[in-house]
Specification:
Blueprint: E1 2-6, H1 16-24, H2 39-53, H3 57-64, H4 73-83, E2 85-93, H5 94-103, E3 109-116, E4 122-126, H6 132-142, E5 146-151, H7 157-162, E6 165-169, H8 173-178, E7 184-185, H9 188-198
Parallel strand pairs: 1-2, 1-5, 2-3, 5-6, 6-7
Antiparallel strand pairs: 3-4
Helix pairs in contact: 3-5, 4-9
Length: 199
């Protein structure tokens, strides 16, 4: 039995941190998992910048409320889910993801949780499991699923490599050059066709 595992940000939705960086005028927050392979290092960097500027969860959620899924993402996901079980595996956080899941028709998502103080300051984060995407794919395989995975960033490479088929979607030139063995897709129609061929 097949199950498709998709990244969220950069694949189905815009990058939340980039949107917040632009809205807040803090360009340092544009750094994402396409730039930094070490997720813990990236999150500590982000939390420190938020603290420096006195920004917290409320300000980020206000920006998230203005974000829509990428054009064509909901239609792609609806079609895919009509053909095969699909899970979104993301290193984002429940507090960020839920408004976007509503706009995507509430697909299943496995993600992480922020630690937030009473005043709304983000003080840390709790990973569901580490490495979250690869560990989840291996767990799905251990109960009889064949996985097909797609994402755009360094933190997606493990689940893509461990799956029976995997695809980079709208990744950057550096990651594509470092991993020429992974097929790349730029459009939802292309990704849907590649996944269907792998079923």
């Amino acid at each position: 039995m097949n199950i498709v595992c998709l990244d969220m940000e950069g694949v189905l939705t815009p990058e939340i941190w980039i949107a917040f960086a632009d809205a807040s005028g803090i360009p340092e927050l544009r750094r994402t998992t396409q730039d930094e392979p070490d997720y813990d290092k990236l999150m500590k960097y982000r939390i420190n910048i938020l603290k420096e500027h006195g920004l917290g969860l409320k300000e980020i959620q206000a920006v998230i409320d203005t974000i829509d899924p990428l054009p064509g993402a909901k239609e792609f996901l609806d079609k895919l889910r009509s053909e095969v079980q699909t899970i979104i595996l993301s290193d984002t956080f429940e507090q960020f993801a839920m408004p976007l899941m509503k706009k995507l028709g509430y697909p299943t998502i496995f993600c992480n949780t922020l630690e937030v103080a009473e005043n709304g300051e983000i003080t840390g984060y709790k990973m569901r499991v580490t490495p979250s995407k690869l560990a989840t794919v291996k767990a799905l395989q251990s109960v009889g699923f064949d996985t097909i995975a797609s994402g755009d960033s360094y933190n997606d490479l493990g689940m893509i490599g461990a799956s029976k088929a995997g695809f980079l979607f709208r990744s950057n030139a550096k990651i594509k050059a470092e991993h020429p063995e992974i097929p790349t897709c730029e459009e939802f129609s292309e990704l849907l066709a590649a996944i269907e061929k792998s079923l």
